[in-house]
Structures are given as C-alpha cells and as structure tokens.
Design brief:
The chain is of the alpha+beta class and 341 residues long. The chain is built from 11 helices and 19 strands. Strands 1, 2, 3, 4, 5, 6, 7, 8, 11, 12, 14 and 17 form a 12-stranded mixed beta sheet that branches. Helix 1 crosses helix 2 and helix 1 crosses helix 4. It is globular, with a radius of gyration of 21 Å. 45% of the residues are buried.
C-alpha cells in the first residue's frame, strides 16, 4: 500500500491509500464500509475508528492488525468502485485534485543517521569540510519541523546564507521494541518514505566544533517528508533503489541505496537500546552531490524560487519549493528589522 495523510474538501485530516489509477481511498470510511457489508458488524463505525483511525501514527500504533484491516478496507473500496459512498453518505474515494497532501506521519521520535554513505564522506573530505563525516553519526530530528509534499521550505535568511539539501531513504517502524538484533529488525519495519534533510551549512560548521549538530537541521520547515509511506511488503529489498534529487529539474544527487555502508537492519538494531515506539521514523543517511561539497557551492546553495524534487525508486517523488521569509510571513524577520531600522 501507498499510505498518505490528506485533508479532505472539508479540511478534515484523514488517512488514505492510493489506487492503481491514482485515486485516493479514505481508509477509515472504507474500513467502516467493509465491516458493515462484509463482516456484518453492527458497531462498524466504532470498530473502524479503533482499527483504522484517521491518523497515521495511530494506525501504525495498531501494528499489523491495523495494517491488515487497512488492506482489507482498500480492497473492498476498489471492489465497490469510485461511485460508492461511505456508511455516513460521505465520500469513499477522492481524486488528487480534491485533497491536499500532508506529511504522511508525525512520529514521536525521528532517529537521524548521518555519514552512512561513504561517497558523502569522501566528497566532504575532498571539499575540505571542517570536520569529517564519520561513519556513522546519530542524533534526533525536530519533529515540529516536518512538512509534507508541495509544502514550502522557508528560507530564514537572517540565520543562514548556505541552505543545502540532502536526499535520504527513511524507515517507519510498525511496532515498539528495544534491544533487538539485526536479524530481528525486519519484524519492526512498517514501510519506507523519502526524507529531504535541509541543512544550514554555515550553522553546521559552527555546531560541529562541539562535535554535535542539531539546530542547523531542525529549523522550522527543514524536514520535508513524504510524499507517502510505501509498506514494506511492496519493497522487498530497500537496498536496491535508485535515488535522485533535482533542483529546478537539474540532477544534483544521483546514487543508489545499495551504497549504504551500514545496512538498515544494523542501523535499527544499533539504535534499539534507546527504545522505539510504533510510528517512529529512522533515516539512513544522504548520498553524494550536496551543494556544500560541489565545485561551486555558492551557485548550488538553495535560494527562494528553487524547487526540489526528491525521487526514490518504487516510492515516488517528494517535491518542495523554497520561499523567502517575507513571502511566507509578509514581513522581515525581527532580527533583520532591528538591524536595518
């Protein structure tokens, strides 16, 4: 399944799945319909809210039971067709034009991996970056910075002049757990999605003097995630995926998930002593081709008006424009207002 979070025409947050013809099925409504029509369940609405709630984090907290209920709901919705209605007379299926995609999930914890692709370490070394990108670094991402497909990244020009991109494959956990071996890791994987790790390089260089960096990657809107979650059963080998990031249609990062130094089961096992909750997200590191380590960083750093497209094979394309602070908020940042008054 390709699972997504969306706002319906009434601006209600819902979760859905995409069909082969790119229609979007409301999974909560579809589950209620399936329970009423197929299971002959009298309390279909209440049970649907428990099995397939209209919230992606809660769906993953339901584990394999909820994911299987979502699969049955999707199959039933496809069978009854686009013209069918939900149990309350509500829409069961939407066209993409009728809804607005949101970030597919807001996890409790976002485990961030850095330095896992040796090609990224090598390009950093060649560019003379102030500190080595060691294999491999872990820190937590700011979940409040998460945005979804087509949401804008806001350029905080009062904070940075070196805004960069980083294409990454991310994993969603389908159950809680701790202290497990790499051989057990696949039991925890619920699905995969795309992550664009937006980074303020000038801030990062200052932070890395202390050996820790976080603010440079956790500023508001610096965490595009999406466009949807592809469940693990549809990606049998996550280490066999082509990866590409484009800016204004120009390829900047082009690589392959097979080039990870540390594979996903080892990553998940290594972090497991900290404990996972269902719905947690784990990134796996970026590939070579970032602006900071290019031949002409100033020309490649992001600027307002740019459009980034992150594509990973068998998942899709995550697209986000870059806009100025004034375009986003209608005024200069307070720090700039003070210095120019």
């Amino acid at each position: 399944m390709r699972l997504l979070t969306f706002e319906d025409p009434a601006r209600r947050p819902r979760i859905g799945a995409i069909t082969a013809d790119d229609s979007i099925v409301d999974l909560n409504s579809a589950c209620a319909l399936y329970l009423r029509d197929i299971e002959q369940e009298s309390a279909y609405a209440r049970l649907a809210d428990a099995l397939v709630p209209p919230n992606m984090l809660e769906l993953f907290e339901g584990g394999e039971t909820s994911l299987e209920a979502a699969r049955k709901a999707l199959a039933h919705a496809i069978e009854v067709g686009h013209n069918a209605s939900g149990t309350r007379g509500d829409a069961l299926t939407y066209s993409p034009a009728e809804v607005r995609l949101k970030a597919p999930i807001i996890p409790r914890k976002f485990f961030h991996t850095a330095g896992n692709f040796r090609e990224h370490h090598e390009e950093a070394s060649k560019a003379g970056f102030s500190h080595p990108v060691l294999p491999w670094i872990m820190f937590f991402q700011n979940v409040d910075a998460i945005i979804g497909h087509e949401d804008p990244v806001i350029y905080p020009e009062h904070l940075t002049q070196e805004l960069d991109y980083e294409l990454e494959l991310a994993v969603v956990l389908k159950k809680s757990g701790k202290h497990f071996a790499p051989e057990e890791a696949n039991d925890y994987i619920g699905g995969y999605l795309i992550f664009n790790d937006i980074t303020a390089r000038d801030i990062q260089r200052r932070e890395m003097k202390s050996g820790v960096f976080s603010f440079c990657k956790g500023i508001d809107t610096f965490c595009p995630l999406g466009p949807w979650i592809v469940t693990a059963d549809e990606i049998p080998d996550p280490h066999n995926l082509a990866m590409e990031l484009r800016v204004n249609g120009e390829p900047r990062q082009r690589s392959h998930s097979s080039k990870m130094s540390v594979k996903i089961p080892e990553i998940l096992s290594h972090y497991s002593p900290m404990g996972y909750s269902a719905g947690d997200v784990v990134s796996t590191g970026t590939v070579s081709g970032v602006a900071a380590f290019s031949g002409d960083p100033k020309a490649w750093y992001l600027k307002p008006g740019d459009v980034m497209e992150c594509e990973i094979e068998h998942i899709g394309v995550l697209r986000n424009p870059v806009i100025s602070w004034i375009e986003a908020y209608g005024h200069k940042p307070a720090a700039l207002t003070r210095t120019t008054a």
